[in-house]
Amino acid sequence: MTKLLLVDDDVEFCALLADYLVGEQFDVAVAHDGAAAIAKLREAPVDLAILDVMMPVMNGLDVLRELRSSSAVPVLMLTARGEEVDRIVGLELGADDYVAKPCNPREIVARIRAILRRAKSTREPSSASPLVVDDVEMRGGERAVFHNGKEIELTSTEYDVLEVLVSHAGSVVEKATVSEAALKRELGPYDRSIDMHISRLRRKLGPLPDGGERIKTVRGMSRLFAKIFLGFWVTTIAVVIVTALAMMQLNRARGDDTVARHFARTQAAYAAAANAILDSGGLAELGQWLRELDGPGGARGHLQLLDDTGRAVFGPAPAADVSKALAEREAGPGEPRMVGGVFFDPLYGPDGARYWFVSDMRRDERLGPGGFPPFRPGEPLVASLRLAIAILVSGFVCAGLARYLTKPIRKLQAASAEIANGNFAVRVEEDARHDELGDLGRDFDRMAGQLERLQASQQQLLRDVSHELRSPLARLQVALGLARQRGGDAVAGELDRIEREAEALEALIRQLLSVARLEADVGDFGDARVDVGELLEYVVRDANYEGGHAHKSVVYAAHTPASVRGDHALLKSAFENVIRNALHHTPAGTSVEVELTRDSATERILVSVRDHGAGVDPALIPDLFKPFVRAQYARDRDSGGYGIGLAIADAAVKRHRGEIGARNHGDGGLLVEILLPPT
User: Fold this and answer.
1) How far apart are alpha carbons 349 and 360 in whole angstroms?
2) H or E element in which residue 383 lies
3) Which residues have a catalytic role annotated?
4) Domain carrying residue 465
5) For the chain, which terminal residue's Cβ has fewer other Cβ atoms within 10 angstroms, N or C?
């Protein structure tokens, strides 16, 4: 006979469920706290353990943690704490399944048998080939991991995550892919569960033999860092280039002054030497000296000797602009030595005759255009290297500055994401920074602390209410199961009525807790793409099935494709509550009209639901989406409503940054309109 250990601090519930399980041919042992459960498990092995979470001395999660350190016995978590985070924690600690109270005892039996079947299949030998990467070996048949031949203890979830990574060794795997393959769910926008599992895997597997990371995280450049870095760097490069061009242009503009002065001094020395040679040796000796200075036979042609009339005594005939410049020199005041790149200096012979020593820099092939010195060999390369080095150094400086500015912002962003995901214990801890960003970090920490205290108190209230309301219902469900086992057909009708009332009460509690969690913004919020048209079709189909028995129907018309980002289950709940509310209130023989369109003013998705009932008192419409508000008490009572459905719809729509409202239709009936932001 299959041996079970049932652990629950609710003595009455434990006794009832144990009796029911015995009636299903199980051998059941009972414990009422975690310490007693550990002791019983050490005394005698069992085939499966059923653990409650909220227990004195040692809670169910601690028992599970202790159990998983030394045993692989299957575990079913059974508790009144039905929040998703509790289920995730339990499953990640190694639980095989999770059932929230209250529940039908037949479901518990079905879950137990399913777990036992899976456990039996995992014990059977497998021919799967092991996966080996470096010094890590994964044996799929045993679901065991070995590091250098030594087995590493991993949770079931850690094994699944590692299996995904090992099967893609050498390539980058997105976190979303790991989540879907290992956790069997889509990755939420602020979901850090994969990061947590990988962090534990790093600790357990250690680094590579050479000290490198065994599991590397590849991160993209943050958008803010990229903007600041690129902004600084592009600005710096632009400043460097503009400055270089401006300096080049300035040097070019000042060339007539700077270069001219240099050549004027040189040519003045030549003119003084020419004047001395003319005094001592005459024109013949001066001509010989000029030929030697200007190259053989005056090849360069930039040196000329003109008589007082402007005719060439040595060198080529003067150009028209040279003659003009000479005439201007004669007429101009101050007698400048340099005019437009042409140098002039008078020479006087022994006989008192005046000659003009002319140096036309524009004709010198050793000079560049306009009489400027050309680049020396290698100068362009040197200039380019200097510019490249300046740009590279500026890049490092800008990267450091951008990192300094964005580091606290990245910490704030990560902390904000954690808070949005429900982790109010996160802190940025910017005590060492004494600027505005440091003040912002410290203010953030104070805000997070306050939110943590408020969230903890609210969560505790929800848990207490859930436990205190659901535990009696759980006992009632089990008692009904026992009564069915023992009572036969004689009381079947009465038991059915009790069961229906218990289910109705459970539904009410579930709705109340749903409203509380939605209004408190507690729990995961999905970011998957939801096809609104497809979802409405599904809800309408179910509503038509229910309404057909009362000769009512739902007519659906989709006039536009539409999709939103959000939680599929929450949106489904919102649409279901609105459409079923309309179906309850529309008279027999009429239809509820559902339309999917676009709001012409805002381009948001518009879902309209209209019934053909008597409408609602206009004074009650502002309160229509509050819990327990009934527009027509008698009809709500007859339909089985509690005045909570529209409140759930309101909270769910607001979680999706949408709006919901109601008004009486001009042709009769109530019109409910839902506006949602499109993807």
Assistant:
1) 22
2) helix 379-420
3) 467
4) 455-520
5) N
